[in-house]
């Protein structure tokens, strides 16, 4: 039996969403590690084909009991070439594990905003021929580029949006979105949005109105990225 992909959830509202749909469609087994419900961080990265870290409202710098074991597990995986994939908080955890720093971004970035892809071979490996696309964002922090990693995407409000290191990919933006997840986040984050009246934060009506126009293209980009990432799985 193939080893499963381990998916780490840090918040009940930030599950694997479209990523799980993709794995299911490809018949790739996966196992949810619900850290928000007290699940223990596994000791051995080699028990899994790959490691995936989702988002969450906390900071990668917080003093939470699971953060240090997660950082150690990411280091294990990188040392053994077991692919790691990070979404938002997940990319920040990857950054810390790889020796980088997570700091406050200049502004919060919430909603649909353009991400520009670097015109480099590594960026094209992950994102294909796309030069720019509208990603979904919900973050107030950013990361420094880890040693040996390549910066492959940025946005106007946040210069560091994606980095790659061999089979490992960290994305500050959310590529895993589905309509129910977007609607739930908007419902639960309405106060946060109202408190941040800056250009990089869209209103709830604008975010929701853009779903029919922008979510299908985001799903297509997610397929491109996930298809590339799973080629490195250590089954």
List the helices and strands and how they pair.
Layout: E1 5-9, H1 18-25, E2 30-34, E3 50-53, H2 67-79, E4 84-87, H3 89-97, E5 102-117, H4 121-127, E6 132-143, E7 150-154, E8 162-165, E9 168-171, H5 179-188, H6 190-194, H7 204-209, H8 211-230
Parallel strand pairs: 1-2, 1-3, 3-4, 4-9
Antiparallel strand pairs: 5-6, 5-7, 7-8, 8-9
Which keywords apply here?
single chain, about 240 residues, alpha/beta, Rossmann fold, 9-stranded mixed β-sheet, about 35% helix
Largest beta-sheet characterization: 9 strands, mixed
**Structural class, please?**
alpha/beta
* Rg on CA atoms, Å: 16 Å
Q: Beta fraction of the residues?
A: 25-35%
Task: Tell me what the CATH architecture is.
Answer: 3-Layer(aba) Sandwich
Global geometry: globular
* CATH H-level homologous superfamily name: Class I glutamine amidotransferase (GATase) domain
Listing every helix as H and every strand as E from the N terminus to the C terminus, the arrangement reads EHEEHEHEHEEEEHHHH
The span between the termini is: 9 Å
């Amino acid at each position: 039996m193939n080893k499963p992909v381990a998916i780490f959830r840090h918040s009940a509202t930030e599950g694997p969403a479209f990523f799980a749909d993709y794995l299911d469609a490809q018949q790739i087994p996966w196992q949810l590690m619900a850290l928000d419900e007290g699940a223990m961080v596994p000791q051995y990265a080699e028990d899994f084909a790959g490691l995936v870290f989702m988002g969450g409202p906390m900071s990668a710098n917080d003093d939470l009991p699971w953060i240090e074991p997660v950082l150690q597990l990411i280091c294990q995986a990188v040392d053994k070439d077991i692919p790691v994939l990070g979404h938002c908080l997940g990319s920040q955890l990857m950054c810390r594990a790889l020796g980088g720093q997570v700091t406050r971004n200049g502004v919060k970035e919430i909603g649909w905003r353009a991400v520009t892809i670097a015109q480099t071979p590594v960026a094209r490996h992950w994102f294909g021929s796309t030069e720019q696309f509208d990603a979904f964002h919900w973050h107030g922090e950013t990361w420094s580029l880890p040693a040996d990693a390549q910066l492959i995407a940025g946005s106007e409000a946040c210069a560091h949006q994606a980095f790659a290191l061999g089979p490992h990919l960290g994305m500050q933006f959310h590529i895993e979105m589905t309509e129910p997840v977007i609607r739930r986040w908007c419902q639960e984050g309405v106060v946060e949005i109202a408190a941040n009246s800056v250009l990089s934060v869209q209103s709830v009506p604008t975010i929701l109105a853009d779903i029919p126009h922008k979510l299908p293209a985001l799903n297509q980009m997610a397929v491109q990225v996930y298809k590339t990432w799973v080629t490195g799985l250590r089954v």
